[in-house]
Amino acid sequence: MLRLREFKLPLEHAEEALRAGILERLEIPEGDLIRIIIFRRAVDARRLNAILFVYTLDLELRQEAETLKRFEKDRNVDVAPDLRYKFVARASANSGLRPVVIGMGPAGLFAGLILAQSGFGPLILERGKEVRERTKDTFGFWRKGILNPESNVQFGEGGAGTFSDGKLHSQIKDRKHYARKVLSEFVKAGAPAEILYVSKPHIGTFRLVSVVEKMRATIQALGGEIRFENRVDDIEIDDGQVRGVNLANGEHIATDHLVLAIGHSARDTFAMLHRRGVHLEAKAFSIGFRIEHPQSLIDRDRYGSHAGNPLLSAADYKLVHHASNGRSVYSFCMCPGGTVVAAASEPGRVVTNGMSQHSRKERNANSGIVVGITPEVDYPDGPLAGIAFQRHWETRAFELGGSHYHAPGQLIGDFIAQRPSSKFGSVVPSYTPGVKLGDLSQALPRFAIEAIREALPVFARTIKHYDLPDGILTGVETRTSSPVRIKRHADTLQSMNVKGLYPTGEGAGYAGGILSAAVDGIKVAEAIALNTTT
Ligand SMILES: Cc1cc2nc3c(=O)[nH]c(=O)nc-3n(C[C@H](O)[C@H](O)[C@H](O)COP(=O)(O)OP(=O)(O)OC[C@H]3O[C@@H](n4cnc5c(N)ncnc54)[C@H](O)[C@@H]3O)c2cc1C
Questions:
Q1: Which protein residues touch ligand 1 with a CB less than 6 Å away?
Q2: Residue 334 DSSP class
Q3: pLDDT digit string, tens, across residues 102-152
Q4: 136: helix, coil or strand?
Q5: Under CATH, what is the fold of the domain 100-279+485-533?
Q6: So where are the chain's domains?
Q7: Residue 222 Cα, ligand 1 centroid: separation in angstroms?
């Protein structure tokens, strides 16, 4: 296959224009172009009067070698890389005890899938419920304010990203094309095929639910076992080697290979690991608020007169500001056409996050606006101090919201002008159970408030009217990434001080988002496969 990069066509191009354009660009006759695979399609909206689609194409040609030779000096023409996933090892009769995976978020799901596809018949233990039951509990919380601490946005089949925008892009280095394996598996399980090529793929909440269900069936069909409502409360370590796990129901399960894919909100599990002497470190993360604007405001700024064109998805943005107090403020997990969601997993605490459906058709755009914090400066008291920090501000948010899971909120204009809000304007907040307007200045540490207050008008220089007085801030956004790292060896991917223990994904501090967590899960599955067969 030949790869052709930077192939540009106008936004409203006819379907045949792609094929015709390739023939012209490569100067080949019609019969020489056998197959076109769109590897990537991005939108270039830098010139609003000439928005372009920018393609990366993999092409099967009749005269491939000859064409490559003719274009050898053209840096946009090359041999296409082989994207197929290659298994590193297969299970054998003497592979030993079956591997156990704790957690069925993206990291645990993909660790489990690869182990199952390699013949290891893994056991996956998930504290939450299967995804349909979990959906009922989560929607129950959003609609009625009844929180189930074991079945919510953070816990249950599919992990933290199930009720999300399902964004699937990541900045990770990926020389082995693991991301392609992840996206292909999602498509096999029913995700839209376009996620394989659009530059910022996303699945959306309702589709994610059925994707997760189908992947569960695949793992089971391959000999894997999945148990829901099976919380791991303890791990057994003998002479520096994992020997098994103890469940909340009293059961003991023996294993020599244990994947820790517990996510960033399993605070009780982090505490247990600390008690058992597993090497943990406090890690930097970010805190802030969710911000909501009309999606049309963002679309107008990004697309000009093309705003609303069905060929363009709802526009997103990425913003960063280095504040004068030394803190960085940035947009986090922006959800075009989505809703702000209640993402608490502990009673008496309020946490915000964002999600959207595949169509991204809701009225508001939302994003985290967060400030970076570090253990060195902000929570220096040991590996679990970041969790104590989160809990403090989540409890404060619960109280400011009226102590029944409403989020405290303020209009952007009032927040900047330092006066409390008492009445909503043109923007209706999407957060349920509800928003209690007031003064957010007490909802986060002073340095964070000052940095965000400074950043919002600065962001309005990039996105016109970003400081819209009627826009809404709700808080608090504290679960941006794990406050803990479960440190592991770079080569074996096993814990620094416990053999057979494989920390992975977001909770272990080795991923930030669905795609990178899934990729990390594949890596630990490979490490186990290699370790048990060599
Ligand atoms: C509302 C929301 C929206 C998001 N939107 C996006 C997005 O659009 N794009 C994106 O890339 N990322 C998004 N994220 C982040 C993304 O969900 C996470 O980065 C990702 O899920 C991390 O995967 P993971 O497998 O490491 O952990 P998790 O997904 O957190 O999974 C961990 C699993 O382990 C289970 N578990 C924990 N402790 C135990 C135990 N003791 N015993 C048994 N099971 C246990 C939990 O129940 C959970 O299911 C979002 C997160 C949230 C909350």
A1: 102-108, 125-128, 153, 155-156, 159-161, 163-167, 231-232, 261-263, 266, 269, 333, 341, 343, 353, 355, 505-507, 511, 513-515, 517
A2: E
A3: 999 999 999 999 999 999 999 999 999 999 999 999 999 999 999 999 999
A4: helix
A5: FAD/NAD(P)-binding domain (3.50.50)
A6: 2-78, 100-279+485-533, 284-477
A7: 24
